[in-house]
């Protein structure tokens, strides 16, 4: 004979399966969402550019970032992680990426960023190839959903040239 | 809970859960609120459990009708060889649906 415990377990299992299906559907719908991000970033000042004792080039920068990331948010977005990288090419690597600044946006109301910041993390080259180098600022973002797959994207913003000589 | 009741409980459970999942998804998407979807679905699951888990009286409308012992004595087991074969076959793989009470 079937007991109430059996019926409860069957109900719980089916309920969990359907919840999984609902989460998958929510995540799948996000794939059709096309955001329109508008962003700009410019270096306003190169605070210090020098060679560290271990021979690595180190730059600290000030830059402004204005980014409207509101369109990234959908009904199932938990938060957006956004970070700015400096990307350049040198003789050792065709692509170097150094994270300069990052920020967590917890909800849509706070997704319109207008900030002028000092680089949170210094631009350090593994070597001394930064003098006179053309560096590109790239904005990356990770859209973290409440359930499902994380969506990553990036946008190249602007380029700047580092000075030909160290500042100190 | 009788056989018909079990079938009914299973069907009700699946129907209610699918319906509440679909309703929760539509409501959550329409209101753009993931948490609302979870709350609506949780409500649906609790409702489903309340309807299908306890042994409600409407799951017991088709009780099994067993033969009276006196009735069985009046029809003793047939002893011919052919009947023995049939009985053996019935014993191996009994047609269970024959033993459950007819609907209504």
Automatic annotation (TrEMBL), chain A:
Source organism of this protein record: Oryza barthii
Superkingdom assignment: Eukaryota
Family: Belongs to the SPCS3 family.
UniProt record, GO biological process: protein targeting to ER; signal peptide processing
GO terms under cellular component: signal peptidase complex
Chief localisation class: endoplasmic reticulum
Coiled coil: none
Secretion signal span: 1-31
Job of this protein: Essential component of the signal peptidase complex (SPC) which catalyzes the cleavage of N-terminal signal sequences from nascent proteins as they are translocated into the lumen of the endoplasmic reticulum. Essential for the SPC catalytic activity, possibly by stabilizing and positioning the active center of the complex close to the lumenal surface.
Protein name, as recorded: Signal peptidase complex subunit 3
Presence of the UniProt keyword NADP in the record: no
UniProt KW Amino-acid biosynthesis keyword: no
PANTHER family assigned to the protein according to its UniProt record, in alphabetical order: MICROSOMAL SIGNAL PEPTIDASE 23 KD SUBUNIT SPC22/23, SIGNAL PEPTIDASE COMPLEX SUBUNIT 3
TrEMBL record, chain B:
Membrane-protein topology: Multi-pass membrane protein
Keywords: Endoplasmic reticulum, Membrane, Transmembrane, Transmembrane helix
GO cellular component terms, A-Z: signal peptidase complex
Cross-referenced InterPro entries: Spc1/SPCS1 (IPR009542)
Subcellular location: Endoplasmic reticulum membrane
Residue spans crossing the bilayer: 12-32, 38-59
The keyword Endoplasmic reticulum belongs to this UniProt entry's keyword annotation: yes
Pfam family, one: SPC12
Keyword check for Nucleotide-binding: no
Chief location category: endoplasmic reticulum
Domain of life: Eukaryota
One of the protein's GO biological processes: protein targeting to ER
Its job: Component of the signal peptidase complex (SPC) which catalyzes the cleavage of N-terminal signal sequences from nascent proteins as they are translocated into the lumen of the endoplasmic reticulum. Dispensable for SPC enzymatic activity.
The family this protein is said to belong to: Belongs to the SPCS1 family.
Stored PANTHER family: MICROSOMAL SIGNAL PEPTIDASE 12 KDA SUBUNIT, SIGNAL PEPTIDASE COMPLEX SUBUNIT 1
Name listed for the protein in its UniProt record: Signal peptidase complex subunit 1
């Amino acid at each position: 004979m079937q007991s109430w415990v059996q019926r409860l377990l069957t109900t719980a299992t089916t309920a969990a399966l359907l919840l999984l299906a609902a989460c998958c559907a929510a995540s799948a719908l996000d794939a059709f969402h096309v955001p329109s991000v508008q962003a700009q970033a410019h270096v306003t000042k190169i605070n210090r550019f020098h060679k560290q004792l271990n021979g690595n080039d180190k730059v600290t920068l000030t830059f402004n970032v204005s980014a409207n990331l509101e369109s990234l948010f959908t009904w199932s977005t938990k938060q957006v992680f956004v970070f700015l990288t400096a990307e350049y090419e040198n003789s050792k690597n065709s692509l170097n990426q150094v994270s300069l600044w990052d920020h967590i946006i917890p909800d849509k109301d706070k997704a319109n960023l207008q900030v002028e910041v000092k680089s949170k993390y210094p631009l350090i080259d593994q070597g001394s190839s930064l003098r006179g180098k053309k560096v590109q600022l790239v904005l990356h973002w990770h859209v973290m959903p409440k359930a499902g797959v994380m969506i990553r994207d990036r946008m190249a913003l602007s380029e700047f040239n580092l000075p030909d000589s160290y500042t100190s | 809970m009788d056989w018909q009741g079990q079938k009914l409980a299973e069907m009700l459970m699946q129907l209610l859960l699918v319906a509440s999942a679909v309703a929760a998804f539509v409501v959550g998407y329409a209101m753009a609120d993931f948490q609302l979807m979870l709350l609506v679905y949780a409500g649906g699951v609790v409702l489903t459990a309340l309807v299908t888990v306890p042994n409600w009286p409407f799951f017991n409308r088709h009780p099994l009708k067993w033969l009276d012992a006196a009735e069985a004595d009046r029809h003793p087991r047939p002893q011919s060889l052919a009947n023995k074969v049939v009985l053996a076959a019935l014993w191996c793989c009994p047609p269970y649906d024959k033993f459950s009470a007819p609907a209504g």
